[in-house]
Structures are given as C-alpha cells and as structure tokens.
Amino acid sequence: MAAVEEFYFQWHLTQRCNFRCQHCYQAGDGGVELAWGDLKLVADEIALALSKWKRLGHIALTGGEPLLRAETLDLLDYLAEAPEVGTIDLLTNGTLVDDRVVGRLVATPKFRRVQVSLDGSSPQTHDAIRGPGAFAKALSAIRKLVQAGVTTRVMFTLHRDNVADVPGLVELALREGLEGVVVDRLVPVGRGAALKGLLLQPAELRDVYHDLFLRSEELAHCGSSLHIVKLRTLWALVEPRRMSEEADLPVQQHLGAMCSAGMAGLCILEDGTVLPCRRLPIPLGNVLHDSLFEIWYTSPVLWQLRDRSGIKGKCRDCEYASRCGGCRAMAYAVTGDHLEADPQCWKN
Amino acid sequence: MLEELDRVAELAGGFALWHMESIGLFWLFDVRSGDAYDLNLTSHLILSSCDGRRTLRDILDVLVARFPATSRDELQADLLGLTGAALEAGALVFLPQPQCCGSGIGGERM
Fold this sequence. Notes:
The complex is a heterodimer. Chain A is of the alpha/beta class. Chain A has 11 helices and 10 strands. By secondary structure, chain B is an alpha+beta fold. Chain B has 3 helices and 6 strands, in the order ββββαβααβ. The relative contact order of chain B is 0.22. The interface between A and B is medium-sized, with 14 and 15 residues.
C-alpha cells in the first residue's frame, strides 16, 4: 500500500507570551486572536483541504505561548476528531505545563509529541536568552511530560551565543529520556531581526552539523533511541559516507530535506493570516476570507517556492538542489529576497 | 447566426490556471471546490488564450502558428472539443454576443 503523503500546518494560536526571548520570530505580543467559533472554522477548512488533497495532516499548535489560551486544549480535541488529521503536536516554552495539561495531552487521541524550546543545557545559557528562571521551568515541564509518558523533544535555536552548548544539549536530552533534539538555525525576523550579528558563519554551521551527525551516529551505534533531527535544509551537504568512514561508523544514507514551504506545509497566524513558513513573513492571504484552496493554488509566492527555476545564486544550480534548496526564510531575512541563495550555505 | 469560432470565452470566476514552464507542468484549478486538473501544453495555451477578448478563431490562429505540423482542421477540433468540455465543467463561460449588425461579424475583434 502506498504511503499517504503528508501535509504540515503550523498554527500559531496567539502572539501572547510570558517570555520576551531575544531571538523570537514575533515582533509584538498583541494582535487579534480568533474566537472559538473561528478556530473551529479554520480547523474545518484545514480538514477540507486535507481531504481534497488526500494528504494526512500533521498539525502543530503553538504561539506565542499556546497554553496561555484556554481554547488550545479544546482545539486539540476538535482537531483529533477529523479523520484527515494524522497527528497533533504542541510547541511550547513549557512554563505552563502542569498536571492538568499533561492529563489532557495523554488523553487526546492522535496527540503525538510536545516540543519544548530549550536554548541551552544550563540556566546560564538558556536564561540569558529567555529570562531568569526559564531553564528550571522548562526542565520541570520536560520531566513532568516524560514521567507521564508523553513523547517529548527539545527545540534549540542556534546562534553564536549558544553554539558552544550544542553538545551539552544532546547530553541533557539523553539524560532526560527525550525522544528527539531539533537544532534549528536562528532566522533573524521579528524581534530576532536585531540579532543578525549572532548568525554563525557558514563554516561554523558546517562544523556544528558535522559534529551533530557524528554524535547521532554514535548514539545509533549504541542503540540509543534519541533522535537528532536532520531533515532540514543544508543537512544534505553533510557527507555521511566520508564522515562515517573517517569515524569508523555505519553509514546513514539520507540526510537533509527540502523545506516544506510551498510544497507540503503552511503556517497560520493567530488572526488567520497565512504564511509560507513562520520564519518567512510574506502574507499569502487570510484563511477567514480566502480559502486555503485559493491561497494554495494562486499565491505567486508559493509558486515561486515550487518552481525552483527562479532560485538565485549558488542554490540555483547546486548539486544538492533536489534535496536541499536552501532556507528561503534565511535568504529573505538576510537579503530581503526569498529567492536568493541561503547565506549560511558553506558549499563553494 | 454567429459561427462557433466567432464566440468569445473567458475563464469562469473561481478558476485559475498555473504553469511551471521550467518542468513543463500545467494545471487548471477550481479554487472553490479544490479540484485540480492536469493540462498539457495545448490545453493550457487554449484556456489561457480565452481572455474575454479574443474569439475562438483568433485562438485557432495562435494554435496554427504555434503548431505548424498539425492541420488546421485537427487543431480546430481540439479547440472546440476542449472549450466545449470546459464549458460543460463550468470552467469557461462564453460572453454574450452583441446583436448582429448585418455584417455577419459579431463582437469586436481585437
């Protein structure tokens, strides 16, 4: 039986947050939020689109801090009722995860995983970015979730101020029994636009990815279940065969992935505005006024993302173009042009 | 009576055409129902030429110039077949024709 193709919706239910992280892709914390009735309409619209496209939906609910909205947990239940929805995730800073929340997550059908933002393996690193006490709260949430059997992973936003802490984060994840680690690059948009100076140079990023790859292979070799996520742009440039031979490790064949923006994913903001990706702030329409079909079929920006012939610079004719393509959001944040080459690519 | 080729058509509201020239893919989308139809180059050329100004005869001339190896009769059959099917599917509408003024030519030719 052929695998059902998947489609990803990242749905930001609120801009409100109890943190003011320096690197956040949000610029503000206000904005009009959809009322419960409109949330259900959007959920129905998502289900309709998935049904028509014969795709299995993966929905990630986030914010802001999504648990600041009372409706978030009810929306989990509502989405879970749709046959077209395959899995639901919650992306959170963890501070509001309590026994009641954990109980609801455990009881929700199709709930797959919580992703807690963790920007360092110690309070020194994490709290410097997110504020005093943030690390302790995040760690407490992680332990509560793991203890309850909720699949939990951490998301690390990588930049110059925390790059040295990447190995420590992996060890923390191992120690705490997490399912996975996502190390994603800081994209300087929103509040983070002021942090362009913290972006790693291409060679530095290459070294981080190479070290992560080797650690990932070591863990697999030891039978660890910790998953270091490598399905991101630029990961395709890591050369697994050569690196594994050097390290005398089994070869992992497939690294990297095309970004799903324009291909198999959409982002919905708290007021219904639709973006190709949360880090690529080019509005495509509003799901309250424009159907997802209209947006998906007629947005020139989405067609530019699909039609790789418009990509510029070294990303255009790159040998890895079919499984990388560079991060269009990073190109946009740094150059103002989402079709430009990925400025953090280390390939000559 | 207007000849069939003197009619002027345009894409119906709620339908959109897109193509990716670089990889030779063409589509017609019904943005209301979400239906998507794969097209070939000729079908896309015909439907995208239905702009509410050109007659089917004008479009046939475009096809003849574009595909010189194919006979005019064959291209006309393709044109009328596709526009008829698109009309039936609600993807195309024929515009009302002005009253015949006695010249035998209806509608302004652009």
